[in-house]
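Subject: for your reference before the review

Hello V.,

The reviewers asked for a structural picture of the protein, and I figured it would be easier to keep everything in one thread rather than splitting it across files. Below is the amino acid sequence we used in the manuscript, unchanged from the supplementary table.
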Amino acid sequence: MKVRDLLKDAVISCREDEPLECAVAKMYAANVGSVVVVDEAGRPVGIVTERDIVRLLAQEVDFKTPLGQVARKSLITVSPEDSALSAAVKMIENNIRHMPVVEGGQVVGVISIRDVLRALLTAEAFP
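And here is what came back from the structure prediction:
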């Protein structure tokens, strides 16, 4: 099974010049655990996750702060052609729960560890 097979929802993103509250509002509205931060050209430059929001709340960061200042920039990505198993390994090795899927420099989706686990369990149960 390939990562491409796991993609289902539109990419939820905010620009790096938008405030942190943009990410919080979009995560809440879409019921997702992460928002990809993109530059003016739509290229991924970072990510903000639920874990980040909790950390930033604890640090009393102003929610008007631009995402470019608070997003995690060490973006770990996967290709749509990678296997679901290799994506799972990458997520475990990097202790992450959300990973942007990038093709041609653009984000085409985001997968969660839950998506990957569900796919692998289904594939195992129904070979």
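For the response letter, the relevant points are probably these. The two ends are 11 Å apart (CA to CA). Residues 113-125 form the longest helix (13 residues).

Happy to draft the paragraph if you're swamped.

O.
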